[in-house]
Design a protein that fits this description.
- The radius of gyration is 16 Å and the shape is elongated.
- It has 65 residues and is mainly beta.
- Helix content is 0%, strand content 60%.
- It has a domain of 39 residues.
- Strand 2 and strand 3 form a beta hairpin.
- It has a 3-stranded mixed β-sheet, with no helix packed on it.
């Protein structure tokens, strides 16, 4: 019998170049738009009758909104 899904998680790997005039301040929250490719899907058994699904996304491009 399939275990119930507890949580779906997106992990982001890689990096993207930003325009030279991009200003960033430590601790400042930013909205980021990313485009990427799902390179792996993992299933984690929580040992309580549930499981988490983890999607690994590799960044292709990123934009600070």
């Amino acid at each position: 019998m399939a275990k119930e899904i507890n949580e779906k998680i997106l992990r982001i790997n890689g990096g993207a170049s930003l325009p030279p005039d991009t200003e960033m301040v430590l601790g400042e929250e930013k909205e980021v738009k990313v485009q990427g490719s799902i390179i792996k899907v993992e299933e984690k058994d929580n040992q309580d009758g549930t499981r988490d699904i983890v999607y690994i996304l590799k960044i292709i491009t990123a934009e600070i909104c």
